[in-house]
Design brief:
Length: 381
């Protein structure tokens, strides 16, 4: 049930992606990169689970030095997430096989330099070190110029951003790249990837539902997107993003392979039309930026403590760091983003306060109760 794919075949070291190559399954280390032993453990655990490609993130020169130590200890095919500091590319490219940049993060540094010049720099670095690239568009960090141009047309903004960046990379005559367009809503992932694929069927796609959250909901959301995309021949590599304890990260690979096998065999699982009704908890899968590993337990505790509100159409977002946490919680009714010792609780875009890990759940429930009461008191239109 997975038809022939129309994308071109690219190479990430000796891994073929796209065209008639098998769909590659990948994941990411959830630990701070400077925790060399912990990150190596993640790499080995993911390799043992059958990962084709493993991503780590770098934010600083300290991360680069840690990555150097990690590279010396493993032969795994490594991809690096450049996060906001794209200038680190020239330092990490000799150590990895693929560079991922986020078009929504290129404006943070060297503001007087054009986006085209920054992309040209990244391509030159990738080419010099025989790295592939990923243009990784994320709904939580849309580049400001696309927000302005597209206003409320969120999908139009992320699709056009991806297409424009492909044109910039094409202009440098560089072909070994993939594109990802991710969102926490599987319906947006389906729509955006289909629209992009219509425009650029030649570009291999990396699929994922970001911040899908904890199993089983995180698996179901991912399955919804992958069934609709892979069955149309859209998608060449994928990542299942789950909020699970670090030692269980191999689950992301196992679930990814199972989804591919099921879809190839025609074993589709439909979901009832009301699957998206009620309380929606989104949670990040953790990465090198996570500030306190208690974040995973907190996400699980949020799920347990809010079960009583399951029938209410509300979204709670739980994020693991101060860098992406504040922005990625803006669209949720209630958001929590975690620092080293405190968790910041938000109501929409407004900060309610910062609380200890042990006290935030009670405050979250107070806010949730108040939201539910306010909705029930509001006159019905
Ligand atoms: S929210 Fe922060 S910790 Fe979580 S995946 Fe995103 S960058 Fe990593």
């Amino acid at each position: 049930m997975i038809p022939e794919r129309r994308s071109r075949r690219i190479r990430i070291r000796d891994l073929a992606v796209g065209g008639d190559a098998p769909i590659a399954v990948q994941s990411m280390a959830a630990t701070p990169t400077t925790d060399v032993a912990g990150t190596l453990r993640q790499v080995r655990l993911l390799e043992a689970a059958g990962a084709d490609l493993i991503r780590v993130a770098v934010d600083s020169k300290r991360d680069v030095e840690a990555l150097r130590e990690i590279r010396a200890e493993t032969d795994a095919i490594l991809s690096v997430d450049l996060q906001e500091n794209y200038r680190l590319a020239e330092l990490v490219a000799p150590l990895v096989d693929k560079l991922r940049y986020n078009p929504g993060h290129l404006h943070h540094h060297e503001r007087d330099k054009s986006i085209e010049d920054k992309v040209r720099y990244l391509v030159e670095v990738a080419r010099a070190h025989d790295c592939a690239m990923r243009i990784g568009v994320n709904a939580g960090s849309v580049a400001p110029e696309y927000k302005e141009r597209f206003g409320g047309d969120h999908i139009g903004a992320i699709v056009q951003c991806a297409a424009d960046h492909c044109a910039m990379v094409d202009a440098e005559e560089f072909a070994d790249y993939v594109v990802s367009i991710k969102d926490s809503d599987p319906k947006v992932v389906i729509d955006a990837n289909l629209r992009f694929h219509e425009m650029r069927p030649d570009v291999p796609l990396h699929l994922g539902v970001t911040e899908a959250g904890m199993p089983p909901d995180g698996v179901i959301k991912t399955r919804i997107a992958f069934e609709q995309l892979l069955s149309r021949g859209v998608g060449d590599t994928l990542r299942v993003s789950l909020t699970v304890p670090f030692d269980d990260k191999g689950m992301e690979i196992a679930v990814g392979r199972e989804l591919i096998e099921d879809i190839a065999a025609g074993r589709f699982r439909s979901v009832p039309p009301n699957f998206f009704d009620g309380l929606n908890i989104i949670a990040c899968p953790s990465c090198s930026r996570v500030e306190n590993t208690a974040f995973i337990e907190l996400a699980e505790e949020v799920k347990r403590a809010t079960e009583y509100a399951a029938d209410h159409d509300l979204t709670i977002a739980v994020m693991g760091c101060r860098v992406n946490g504040p922005g990625e919680t803006d669209d949720a009714d209630l958001g929590l983003w975690c620092g080293p010792k405190q968790v910041h609780l938000k109501r929409g875009e407004e900060l309610v306060g910062a609380f200890g890990y042990g006290e935030v759940i009670a405050r979250l429930r107070d806010e949730l109760d108040a939201l539910i009461a306010a909705r029930e008191a509001a006159p019905r239109s």
